[in-house]
């Protein structure tokens, strides 16, 4: 076999796609423009660099859809999950990782694979021949974006994604703040104390909201609109939706007790999550922002415990592009007008590290099976993977299509179970049990075709 699989973009999706295809016996070339061509958000030339949060979110595979996706990727011998597990940090019930060693591990494993090569170049056109996966993510270059729009006959959509700031742990006042995971979640003391919490009185919260609303914000370029993804809203946008919005979102005070003032319930709480293995960096949870740098420092130092905080990174904002996938992609993630080209990752309209890697996993397997001329069985819709791919390739309404995290709302109902909040625990467990069974059966079917990754 001489046909190669070309993958454009070495983020979560591209890295996972390359690994899966190479493990199936296909030669892979990763085309990654960094570090020759830089982006607003990236700092290095490593593959699978984490540019926003360092969290893969919940690792609960029985009651959480993203935790179920973790389970499915581990069952499929995914590179992203094995690398994340190798560099795991305490984060309560979440899977957080030490971002730099994680990216270095992914990079080293791919570059040392005998069937993988990496070339540092920017691809700006859609090729006419060959086997290709485009996983260029939310920061797809303008030139390539224009080529995609020209080839599809439709403009790619755009939204803005904001990055949360990171503070140095030593600059946080622990006489005011305290360590505790919400509801003391976790099996070890380290897990139960994975977050740093900064309490606010009502007066402090009101003053913070006033400052947030009045702060200087980043201006948009002409012709751009602020079509934010609801799962990653800048805090000032949330505040504009109502003064209590943040207190019922990332600043909710539930499940926490301040040991400095155990008899006084905070009106709001700002949480910081550990961002590296050394425990020297903490990111402010849910505090994506488009405030200007000077305003950020001033406003964030109003938070009790952060009065003298020093920041390793301040927040920022950038434009994310994604396809109207329900109209453009078929059930195998191929461009309908050019079936030798697949898309994977955030550019398809999934949101999040895990979801992006998951779509890369499927794209890599599907492309490799096509090259090997051993088609795989359809991805089961009752799995988390299947629910996502079904959503982006036809399950979503194309007229209102927006980026989506995996969630149980994408799953087909289980017969005989109650709806509503009271039946939620049993319903979620039924979803995950059914999904695991479907996914395990699919992996077995893949193995029977003779193209299961080694």
From TrEMBL:
Its cofactor is FAD. It is an enzyme of class 2 (transferase). It catalyses: uridine(54) in tRNA + (6R)-5,10-methylene-5,6,7,8-tetrahydrofolate + NADPH + H(+) = 5-methyluridine(54) in tRNA + (6S)-5,6,7,8-tetrahydrofolate + NADP(+); uridine(54) in tRNA + (6R)-5,10-methylene-5,6,7,8-tetrahydrofolate + NADH + H(+) = 5-methyluridine(54) in tRNA + (6S)-5,6,7,8-tetrahydrofolate + NAD(+). SUPFAM superfamilies: FAD/NAD(P)-binding domain. Its EC number is 2.1.1.74. It comes from the Bacteria. Keywords: Cytoplasm, FAD, Flavoprotein, Methyltransferase, NAD, NADP, Transferase, tRNA processing. FAD binds at residues 9-14. Coiled coil: none annotated. Residues 5-374 form the MnmG N-terminal domain. Gene3D superfamilies: FAD/NAD(P)-binding domain. It is found in: Cytoplasm. Belongs to the MnmG family. TrmFO subfamily. Catalyzes the folate-dependent formation of 5-methyl-uridine at position 54 (M-5-U54) in all tRNAs. This is Methylenetetrahydrofolate--tRNA-(uracil-5-)-methyltransferase TrmFO. It comes from Lutimaribacter marinistellae. The lineage of its organism: Bacteria, Pseudomonadati, Pseudomonadota, Alphaproteobacteria, Rhodobacterales. The gene is trmFO.
């Amino acid at each position: 076999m001489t046909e190669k699989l070309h993958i454009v973009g070495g983020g979560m999706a591209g890295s996972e796609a390359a690994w899966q295809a190479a493990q199936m016996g296909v030669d892979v070339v990763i085309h990654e423009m960094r570090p020759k061509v830089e982006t607003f958000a990236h700092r290095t030339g490593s593959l699978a660099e984490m540019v926003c949060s360092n969290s893969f979110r919940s690792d609960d595979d029985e009651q959480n859809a993203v935790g179920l996706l973790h389970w499915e990727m581990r069952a499929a011998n995914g590179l992203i999950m094995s690398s994340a597990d190798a560099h795991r940090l305490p984060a309560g019930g979440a899977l957080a990782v030490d971002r730099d060693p994680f990216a270095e591990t992914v990079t080293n494993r791919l570059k040392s694979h005998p069937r993988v090569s990496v070339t540092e170049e920017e691809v700006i056109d859609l090729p006419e021949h060959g086997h290709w996966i485009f996983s260029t993510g939310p920061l797809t270059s303008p030139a390539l974006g224009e080529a995609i729009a020209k080839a599809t006959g439709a403009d790619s959509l755009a939204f803005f994604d904001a990055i949360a700031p990171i503070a140095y742990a030593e600059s946080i006042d622990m006489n005011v703040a305290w360590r505790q995971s919400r509801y003391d979640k976790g099996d070890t003391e380290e897990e139960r104390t994975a977050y740093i919490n900064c309490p606010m009185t009502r007066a402090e919260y009101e003053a913070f909201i006033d400052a947030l609303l009045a702060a200087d914000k980043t201006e948009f370029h002409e012709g751009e609109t602020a079509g934010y993804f609801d799962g990653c809203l800048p805090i000032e946008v949330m505040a504009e939706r109502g003064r209590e919005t943040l207190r019922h979102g990332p600043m909710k005070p539930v499940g926490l007790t301040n040991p400095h003032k155990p008899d006084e319930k905070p009106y709001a709480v700002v949480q910081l999550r550990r961002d590296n293995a050394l425990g020297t960096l903490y990111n402010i949870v849910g505090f994506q922002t488009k405030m200007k740098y000077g305003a950020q420092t001033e406003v964030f130092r109003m938070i009790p415990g952060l009065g003298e905080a020093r920041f390793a990174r301040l927040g920022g904002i950038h434009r994310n592009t994604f396809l109207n996938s329900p109209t453009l992609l078929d059930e195998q993630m191929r461009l309908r007008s050019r079936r030798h080209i697949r898309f994977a990752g955030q550019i398809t309209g999934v949101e999040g590290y895990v979801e992006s890697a998951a779509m890369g996993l499927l794209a890599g397997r599907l492309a490799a099976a096509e090259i090997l001329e051993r088609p795989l069985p359809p991805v089961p819709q009752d799995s988390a993977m299947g629910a996502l791919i079904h959503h982006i390739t036809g399950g979503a309404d194309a007229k209102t299509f927006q980026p989506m995290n995996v969630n149980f709302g994408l799953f087909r109902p289980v017969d005989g179970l109650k709806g509503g909040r009271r039946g939620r625990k049993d319903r979620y467990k039924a979803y995950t049990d059914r999904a695991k069974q479907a996914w395990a059966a699919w992996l077995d079917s893949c193995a029977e075709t003779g193209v299961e990754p080694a």
